[in-house]
Design a protein that fits this description.
The protein is an alpha+beta fold. The chain has 2 domains: 4-85, Gyrase A, domain 2, CATH 3.30.1360.40; 93-228, Cyclophilin. It has 5 helices and 13 strands. It has helices at 27-43, 69-81, 108-115, 119-126, 221-228, and strands at 8-11, 16-20, 48-53, 57-62, 93-100, 131-136, 143-146, 161-164, 168-172, 175-178, 183-185, 188-192, 213-218. Strands 5-12-9-10-7-6-13 form a 7-stranded mixed β-barrel. It has a 4-stranded antiparallel beta sheet with strand order 1-2-4-3, with helices on one face. Helix 3 crosses helix 4 (119-126). The longest helix is centred in the first third of the chain and has 17 residues, at 27-43. The N and C termini lie far apart (54 Å). The relative contact order is 0.16. The model is unreliable at 1-5 (pLDDT under 50).
Length: 230
């Protein structure tokens, strides 16, 4: 009938229910995930501990002493009946500055060679369109975004780096992302942004949110340093 009826649910331990809406990365499936996540947060308050949306699935962590899994499923079914009419927040577009290449983008040259195009063309392509934020995860504030222009689709590194600097702008397969903090990582780094993606003292702490859009634009190293040290 609707979104939830077409999904598959799995028990995850004694307090988790995973709902899978599909088996691919697509804006349509991701919209279903977002609608259900927002509806659950708005309509089921008692017994819900956390709602974790991803590309194509939704993990609901609940307190079984306050909410049984049978009751949760019944309430999800009722929510689903009107889910397609539920409004979504108006998407925002955030423009993210990035300095490309050199020490900031150590994989830029290799990506250019892989596609047999110039480094300038790689930058132009990466900045050419807004990207949908499919989910926030991996580290706090890290946005998984897509899809890349076909000419930029590139495999991950065979061996991940142990340390990727905070702010690194990277690509892998059809996705692009920004490392919100220093961490290991296997994506190919094209550049770096001075933008602060996560600040635990702010409300909300994450600069970006699922369902919004990001468009990159190129800045110089001088602009990066001036922005970074303001």
């Amino acid at each position: 009938m609707g979104l939830y009826a077409q999904a598959i649910s799995y028990l995850m331990g004694d307090r988790g229910l995973l709902i899978e809406f599909g088996d691919e990365i697509s804006p349509e499936i991701n919209e279903k995930v977002r609608r259900m996540a927002l509806a659950v947060q708005a309509e089921i308050r008692e017994g819900i501990i956390e709602v974790v949306p991803t590309y194509r699935s939704l993990l609901i962590i609940y307190n079984p002493l306050l909410l049984s899994v049978e009751d949760l499923k019944k309430r999800l079914k009722r929510i689903e009946e009107e889910l397609q009419q539920a409004p979504l927040p108006e998407p925002r577009l955030t423009r993210i500055p990035a300095v490309y290449g050199g020490i900031y983008g150590p994989d830029l040259e290799e990506v250019a060679r892989y596609h047999q195009i110039s480094r300038e063309k790689v930058i132009q392509l990466h900045c050419s369109k807004p990207y949908l934020i499919y989910m926030i995860g991996f580290t706090p504030g890290y946005p998984y975004m897509g899809e890349l222009p076909e000419e930029l689709v590139t495999p991950r590194l065979k061996t991940p780096r142990l340390v990727v600097p905070k702010g690194s702008v990277a690509i892998a397969q059809r996705q692009t992302g920004i490392y919100s903090m220093e961490s290991p990582g296997g994506w190919r780094i094209l550049g770096r942004t001075p933008a602060e993606l996560f600040d635990p003292l702010k409300d909300p702490p994450s600069l970006l949110r699922m369902g919004d859009f990001v468009q990159f634009y190129q800045i110089s190293e001088k602009e990066f340093k001036e922005w970074h040290f303001e």
